[in-house]
Specification:
Layout lengths: L1 H16 L5 H13 L3 H10 L3 H14 L3 H14 L4 H27 L2
Helix pairs in contact: 1-2, 2-3, 3-4, 4-5, 4-6, 5-6
Amino acid sequence: MRRLYSLAVIAFNNALEHNYDDARTYNNLGLALARLARYQEALVAFRKGGSEARAHNNLGCIYLEQGKYKKAIDSFTKAIEISPKYYTKASDNLQKARRAYRKSRLAAEDNRTGE
């Protein structure tokens, strides 16, 4: 799977070099980079595909999907701080991340106590 994302990054960069630089291309590039754990590069691509708040929200969605709940919470919080008008979407995602984080912490505690 990693190889496919690497090929996708090459394809999206090629598209951008040939002046196909729309928001969708940048967002897809950001997704491929994030799947390769190249998060800072992904954030840059997401920024070029939309607003700063949207970039942090997108990165938060990736973190949430990958089970990196604390980082997801931080990203969604940042999106809300940057743009309060983005509050509804990022807030919904923030609540999902907080629930998943609590659930993962409870599961970890259960595993430690043997329950």
